[in-house]
From TrEMBL:
<comment type="similarity">
    <text>Belongs to the leucine-binding protein family.</text>
</comment>
<dbReference type="InterPro" id="IPR003887">
    <property type="entry name" value="LEM_dom"/>
</dbReference>
<dbReference type="Pfam" id="PF12770">
    <property type="entry name" value="CHAT"/>
</dbReference>
<feature type="domain" description="LEM">
    <location>
        <begin position="29"/>
        <end position="73"/>
    </location>
</feature>
<dbReference type="InterPro" id="IPR051010">
    <property type="entry name" value="BCAA_transport"/>
</dbReference>
<dbReference type="Pfam" id="PF13458">
    <property type="entry name" value="Peripla_BP_6"/>
</dbReference>
<keyword id="KW-0732">Signal</keyword>
<protein>
    <recommendedName>
        <fullName>LEM domain-containing protein</fullName>
    </recommendedName>
</protein>
<dbReference type="InterPro" id="IPR024983">
    <property type="entry name" value="CHAT_dom"/>
</dbReference>
<dbReference type="InterPro" id="IPR028082">
    <property type="entry name" value="Peripla_BP_I"/>
</dbReference>
<dbReference type="InterPro" id="IPR028081">
    <property type="entry name" value="Leu-bd"/>
</dbReference>
Length: 663
């Protein structure tokens, strides 16, 4: 059955291009088996599709993905419903979170402008959902007219996708799938099953067909021709993604634009000209003027290595959106590379490090990851920083078979997200349990409110886990909505609301790019509430911008330099290189690089590296503790891995520092 939309307008784009890009949204799956859907959709990759799955996404993640990237097909499986006689359709993202299609109107309309051609909704109350989607001028919508048994939805999807991805037109593919269901109605006792699937279409839209993928031999010949006329080093990053090259550098470009010395500029020019000796000399001179510059130290070691046979990794950091955090991660990687190369490298080969600027932007992270996997010389990636970026890029690394070790992403969505995905930090529960225990039993607070970035996957996870830990102690969570991403957010008004609600304390858990807003909240507090913080706030920016307002705030962290003796080699070397102590991000990035190095000593291929890291016998002693990974990709920790640090005046300066509190 085909229903014609009256709210039609001729589509801007309709032809399917290769690869066919499909955004797959798996919503609340209570009492629904979505595994068959996943398996069916995965098979489409062999027919020229590029699948991006979102499992119970946050609203921010969903809206961002819909509007900021190009999609040909949108697929939703889960629960949906309508209210007010069909005026508004809702899809359930999670058991306790539904979003109306009206709220997604601007994002879906932008998706159509970007090229969205078909939406498939394997969910209840599909007719009203389809009407809503048609109003946003999606050319074709396939839906189920009534609540449908799992078996019917899965059989229809199987028959339709097989036919459609084989080159049959959309309408004929739906007709074929309905006929197959009709054949099964009696045999499998599925009455009226063939009547349920339907198409809602724009009558001006031409026939939609899935074109076969470009033959691989043609691509191979084209690449071979390019290689024959262009140096390989110029092809790797600049061939496929023309907007990306200036975000990646091994020394031929300056990514950190602040406080650039003339010597650094000269060094970059020499590096680009492959005059590595002169480049090394200039980078060394630049570090004499400005030693606290990890980008320059990485470029120096790359220049010293020159054209030597080496092992290459990439570190991806948010230089454009959060320079302080980016520098913290770069210090860890730079210190590790410097140490490795000074000791003779890995099995006699030096370590080369490329730097990438992803700005903590999920879309950029995906583009960069697609670029990384296409470079056969790249063996692993240290990154990304924010969980939003890491979660978004993870499917790309899995598809390309490239190890990603994130030193700083806490989101539990990374757990079991693929064989090539690893993370260095503890699971959120270990940290929230530590913080809750301190608040209740040491700070003696009983009523707490939480301000977080609700749209950020790791911050929302941290908030929810902390509330569970705090309430498990028998204490009260003050439920005042406080969202750093809310455009109406006002710190003074919010503090008054929280105080009037009876809270005696406040937990600040911002996204890493919203630290400034958390500092504003601390400044507005004026000592009325006892403040606590998530690991995100453990950064120089908090101290620099907060000053007296953040004095006394206690926060949880996965590591502190005072867990090591003052003269421990790592701390001593860090002070010599950077002129001071480093924080947990630097230590975790250092250990991530050291873990990759240890694995490379055993295997020098991408798959071999993954296999080594997941081997039960693999173990490395790092500065943050023993590095050993579980089958899920999570690092093996014991409960109580979190530490409490408190902001106190620094007796050696006029500023403040993070002081480790005794357990």
């Amino acid at each position: 059955m085909t229903i014609v939309s009256l709210a039609f307008k001729k589509p801007v784009k309709i032809a399917l291009r290769n690869p066919v890009k499909i955004l797959v949204i798996f919503g609340n799956s209570e009492n629904i088996d979505l595994k068959p859907d996943e398996e069916l959709l995965a098979k489409l990759e062999k027919r020229g599709a590029r699948i991006t799955p979102l499992t119970q996404p946050t609203r921010r993640e969903l809206r961002y993905r819909l509007s900021e990237q190009r999609w040909d097909l949108l697929f939703f499986a889960g629960h949906s419903y309508s209210e007010k006689e069909g005026e508004s359709g809702f899809i359930q993202l999670k058991e306790d979170d539904s979003i109306s299609l009206k709220e997604l109107e601007s994002d879906l309309s932008q998706a159509v402008r970007n090229g969205l051609k078909l939406a498939i909704f394997n969910s209840c109350d599909g007719l009203e959902i389809a009407r809503n989607l048609a109003n946003f001028r999606i050319p074709y919508v396939i839906f189920m007219r009534e609540p449908v048994p799992d078996r019917v939805a899965q059989r229809f999807l199987e028959y339709f996708l097989f036919r459609f991805s084989s080159g049959e037109s959309l309408d004929l593919s739906v007709r074929y799938a309905r006929q197959r269901l009709q054949d099964e109605e009696r045999e499998h006792q599925l009455p009226c099953a063939s009547w349920l699937p339907a198409i809602y279409q724009n009558p001006t839209a031409p026939t939609l067909k899935w074109l076969p993928p470009t033959p691989r031999i043609a691509v191979g010949v084209a690449i071979a021709f390019l290689v024959s006329i262009i140096p390989l080093s110029l092809i790797i990053y600049k061939r496929i993604h023309p907007s990306i090259p200036h975000r990646i550098s091994m020394g031929e470009e300056i990514l950190v634009k602040e406080n650039v010395t003339s010597e650094k500029k000269k060094g970059v020019k020499a590096f680009e000209e492959k005059d590595f000796a002169r480049a090394a000399s200039e980078f060394q001179a630049s570090l004499q003027k400005q030693r606290n510059d990890p980008e320059t130290l990485i470029y120096l070691n790359n220049a010293r290595n020159g054209d030597k046979s080496s092992y290459k990794i990439i570190v991806s950091v948010p230089i454009g959106s959060n320079l302080d955090v980016a520098q913290e991660i770069l210090r860890g990687v730079a210190q590790a590379q410097n140490e490795i190369d000074r000791k003779g490298g890995i099995n006699g080969k030096p370590l080369q490090v490329a730097i990438a600027n992803d700005e903590n932007n999920p879309d950029l992270a995906i583009q960069l990851a697609n670029t990384f996997i296409e470079d056969p010389q790249t063996l692993a990636v240290v990154g990304h920083n924010s969980s939003d970026a890491s979660v978004a890029a993870a499917p790309v690394y899995n598809r390309g078979g490239l190890v990603m070790i994130t030193p700083t992403s806490f989101s539990d969505k990374l757990s079991s997200s693929g064989d090539y995905i690893f993370r260095m930090v503890p699971t959120i529960r270990f940290l929230t349990d530590t913080l809750s225990d301190y608040i209740v039993h040491t700070a003696h607070k009983t009523k707490i409110a939480v301000c977080s970035s609700r749209a950020a996957v790791d911050n929302e996870s941290f908030r929810n886990q902390f509330i569970n830990s705090f309430q498990a102690e028998g204490k009260q969570y003050i439920n005042v909505k406080c969202d750093f991403d809310d455009p109406q957010y006002n710190p003074e008004e919010k503090i008054l609301e929280i105080v009037s609600s009876g809270a005696d304390s406040l937990l600040l858990a911002p996204h890493v790019d919203r630290i400034g807003k958390a500092v504003e909240m601390a400044q507005a507090n004026q000592g009325r509430l006892t403040l606590f913080g998530s690991p995100t706030l453990y950064t120089y920016k908090t101290l620099k911008e907060g000053q007296q307002a953040v004095n006394g705030i206690a926060l949880v962290a996965p590591w502190h330099p005072d867990t090591l003796p003052y003269n421990a080699p790592f701390r001593k070397q860090a002070r010599q290189l950077w002129g001071g102590e480093v924080n947990w991000r630097s230590a975790q990035a250092y250990d991530a690089t050291m873990a990759i190095t240890a694995a490379l000593q055993q295997s020098q291929t991408r798959e071999g590296l993954k296999n080594t890291l997941t081997d039960r016998t693999f173990s490395v002693e790092g500065v943050t503790g023993t590095i050993k990974f579980l089958p899920s990709g999570d690092r093996q920790f014991i409960p109580g891995s979190g530490l409490i640090a408190k902001v106190k005046p620094n007796p050696k300066t006029s500023g403040y520092k993070f002081v480790l509190l005794p357990r």
